[in-house]
Amino acid sequence: MALDDHAGVTFETSLSSSGNNTGIPVPDHVIEQLKHGKRPPVLVTVNGYEYRSTVAVMGGQHLIGVSAAVRAATGLKGGDPISVTLKVADTPREVDVPADFAAAMEESVPARQFFDGLSNSLQRYHVDNVNAAKAPETRQRRIEKAVALFVAGKQR
How much is the pTM? Predict the structure, then answer.
Protein backbone atom coordinates (compact mmCIF):
# COMPACT_ATOMS: atom_id res chain seq x y z
CA MET A 1 0.00 0.00 0.00
CA ALA A 2 2.24 2.82 -1.20
CA LEU A 3 1.06 6.38 -0.81
CA ASP A 4 0.70 8.21 -4.09
CA ASP A 5 -0.34 11.84 -3.62
CA HIS A 6 -2.98 11.45 -6.32
CA ALA A 7 -4.26 7.97 -5.49
CA GLY A 8 -4.35 8.23 -1.70
CA VAL A 9 -4.57 5.22 0.59
CA THR A 10 -7.33 2.63 0.13
CA PHE A 11 -8.35 0.17 2.84
CA GLU A 12 -11.24 -2.12 3.76
CA THR A 13 -13.19 -1.77 7.02
CA SER A 14 -16.73 -1.77 8.42
CA LEU A 15 -18.72 1.34 9.22
CA SER A 16 -18.91 1.58 13.00
CA SER A 17 -21.86 3.00 14.87
CA SER A 18 -22.54 3.85 18.48
CA GLY A 19 -25.91 5.41 19.24
CA ASN A 20 -26.42 8.24 16.74
CA ASN A 21 -22.70 8.39 15.88
CA THR A 22 -21.40 6.65 12.78
CA GLY A 23 -17.77 6.61 11.75
CA ILE A 24 -15.05 5.03 9.68
CA PRO A 25 -12.32 3.42 11.80
CA VAL A 26 -8.93 4.31 10.31
CA PRO A 27 -6.05 1.87 10.95
CA ASP A 28 -2.86 3.32 12.48
CA HIS A 29 -0.78 2.30 9.45
CA VAL A 30 -3.03 4.41 7.18
CA ILE A 31 -2.50 7.47 9.42
CA GLU A 32 1.26 6.85 9.23
CA GLN A 33 1.14 6.57 5.42
CA LEU A 34 -0.70 9.90 5.09
CA LYS A 35 2.22 11.62 6.90
CA HIS A 36 0.13 14.56 8.14
CA GLY A 37 0.01 13.96 11.89
CA LYS A 38 -2.61 12.19 13.99
CA ARG A 39 -5.57 14.33 12.81
CA PRO A 40 -5.06 14.95 9.10
CA PRO A 41 -7.60 16.80 6.93
CA VAL A 42 -8.75 14.26 4.34
CA LEU A 43 -10.83 13.75 1.23
CA VAL A 44 -12.83 10.60 1.91
CA THR A 45 -14.17 8.46 -0.93
CA VAL A 46 -16.62 5.73 0.03
CA ASN A 47 -19.15 4.05 -2.31
CA GLY A 48 -18.13 6.52 -5.02
CA TYR A 49 -19.09 9.48 -2.80
CA GLU A 50 -16.40 12.01 -1.86
CA TYR A 51 -16.45 14.43 1.06
CA ARG A 52 -14.00 16.37 3.22
CA SER A 53 -13.40 15.62 6.85
CA THR A 54 -10.74 15.49 9.52
CA VAL A 55 -9.59 12.33 11.23
CA ALA A 56 -10.53 12.45 14.92
CA VAL A 57 -9.17 10.39 17.79
CA MET A 58 -11.75 8.89 20.15
CA GLY A 59 -10.87 6.34 22.80
CA GLY A 60 -7.44 5.94 21.25
CA GLN A 61 -8.93 5.02 17.86
CA HIS A 62 -8.71 7.12 14.69
CA LEU A 63 -12.18 7.78 13.25
CA ILE A 64 -13.77 9.81 10.48
CA GLY A 65 -17.34 10.93 11.12
CA VAL A 66 -20.06 9.93 8.67
CA SER A 67 -23.00 12.33 8.83
CA ALA A 68 -26.62 11.42 8.19
CA ALA A 69 -26.37 13.29 4.87
CA VAL A 70 -23.37 11.18 3.79
CA ARG A 71 -25.13 7.98 4.89
CA ALA A 72 -28.21 8.98 2.88
CA ALA A 73 -26.11 9.79 -0.21
CA THR A 74 -24.17 6.51 -0.02
CA GLY A 75 -26.89 4.19 1.31
CA LEU A 76 -24.58 3.07 4.13
CA LYS A 77 -25.47 2.13 7.69
CA GLY A 78 -23.48 0.99 10.73
CA GLY A 79 -21.90 -2.44 10.28
CA ASP A 80 -21.72 -2.25 6.48
CA PRO A 81 -18.39 -3.41 4.97
CA ILE A 82 -16.79 -0.55 3.01
CA SER A 83 -13.80 0.27 0.86
CA VAL A 84 -12.39 3.68 1.76
CA THR A 85 -9.87 5.87 -0.04
CA LEU A 86 -8.28 8.75 1.89
CA LYS A 87 -6.27 11.57 0.36
CA VAL A 88 -4.73 14.42 2.32
CA ALA A 89 -6.90 17.51 1.77
CA ASP A 90 -4.34 20.24 1.29
CA THR A 91 -6.52 22.77 -0.54
CA PRO A 92 -8.50 25.42 1.34
CA ARG A 93 -11.99 24.33 2.34
CA GLU A 94 -14.70 26.17 0.44
CA VAL A 95 -18.43 26.31 0.90
CA ASP A 96 -20.60 26.40 -2.22
CA VAL A 97 -22.93 29.34 -1.55
CA PRO A 98 -26.22 29.19 -3.50
CA ALA A 99 -26.73 32.04 -5.98
CA ASP A 100 -29.78 33.52 -4.21
CA PHE A 101 -28.01 33.53 -0.84
CA ALA A 102 -24.86 35.08 -2.37
CA ALA A 103 -26.93 37.76 -4.14
CA ALA A 104 -28.69 38.69 -0.89
CA MET A 105 -25.33 39.06 0.87
CA GLU A 106 -23.89 41.11 -2.02
CA GLU A 107 -26.65 43.69 -1.47
CA SER A 108 -25.13 44.31 1.95
CA VAL A 109 -21.34 44.41 1.76
CA PRO A 110 -20.93 44.10 5.57
CA ALA A 111 -23.01 40.89 5.49
CA ARG A 112 -20.82 39.30 2.82
CA GLN A 113 -17.62 40.38 4.59
CA PHE A 114 -18.93 38.93 7.86
CA PHE A 115 -19.92 35.65 6.18
CA ASP A 116 -16.51 35.38 4.47
CA GLY A 117 -14.86 35.75 7.89
CA LEU A 118 -16.83 32.87 9.44
CA SER A 119 -15.28 29.45 9.95
CA ASN A 120 -15.94 26.83 7.32
CA SER A 121 -18.32 24.97 9.63
CA LEU A 122 -20.38 28.10 10.38
CA GLN A 123 -20.57 28.99 6.70
CA ARG A 124 -21.73 25.43 5.99
CA TYR A 125 -24.29 25.68 8.83
CA HIS A 126 -25.94 28.71 7.21
CA VAL A 127 -25.79 27.30 3.66
CA ASP A 128 -27.22 23.95 4.82
CA ASN A 129 -29.99 25.78 6.69
CA VAL A 130 -30.96 27.69 3.54
CA ASN A 131 -30.72 24.58 1.34
CA ALA A 132 -32.86 22.53 3.74
CA ALA A 133 -35.90 24.78 3.22
CA LYS A 134 -38.58 23.02 1.21
CA ALA A 135 -40.82 25.98 0.39
CA PRO A 136 -39.44 29.01 -1.53
CA GLU A 137 -40.96 31.33 1.12
CA THR A 138 -39.11 29.49 3.90
CA ARG A 139 -35.87 29.63 1.93
CA GLN A 140 -36.27 33.40 1.44
CA ARG A 141 -37.01 33.93 5.16
CA ARG A 142 -33.91 31.96 6.11
CA ILE A 143 -31.76 33.99 3.72
CA GLU A 144 -33.13 37.26 5.11
CA LYS A 145 -32.60 36.10 8.70
CA ALA A 146 -28.99 35.07 7.99
CA VAL A 147 -28.19 38.38 6.26
CA ALA A 148 -29.71 40.31 9.19
CA LEU A 149 -27.59 38.28 11.64
CA PHE A 150 -24.43 39.00 9.66
CA VAL A 151 -25.18 42.74 9.46
CA ALA A 152 -25.67 42.70 13.25
CA GLY A 153 -22.31 40.94 13.63
CA LYS A 154 -23.82 37.72 14.95
CA GLN A 155 -22.68 34.26 13.87
CA ARG A 156 -26.00 32.52 14.62
Answer: 0.61
Report how far residue 125's alpha carbon sits from residue 57's, in angstroms, rounded to the nearest whole number. Answer: 23
Task: State pLDDT tens for residues 135-156.
Answer: 999 999 999 999 999 999 999 9
128, exposed or middle or buried, with CB in 10 Å at 0-12, 13-18, 19+?
exposed
Alpha helices in 8-151 (DSSP H): 28-34, 68-74, 99-106, 109-117, 120-131, 136-151
Would you tell me how many other CB atoms lie within 10 Å of the CB of residue 140?
14
Q: How would DSSP label each residue in 72-88?
A: HHHT--TT-EEEEEEEE
Interatomic CA distance for residues 10 and 87, integer angstroms: 9
- Per-residue pLDDT tens for 25-65? 999 999 999 998 889 999 999 988 888 899 999 888 999 99
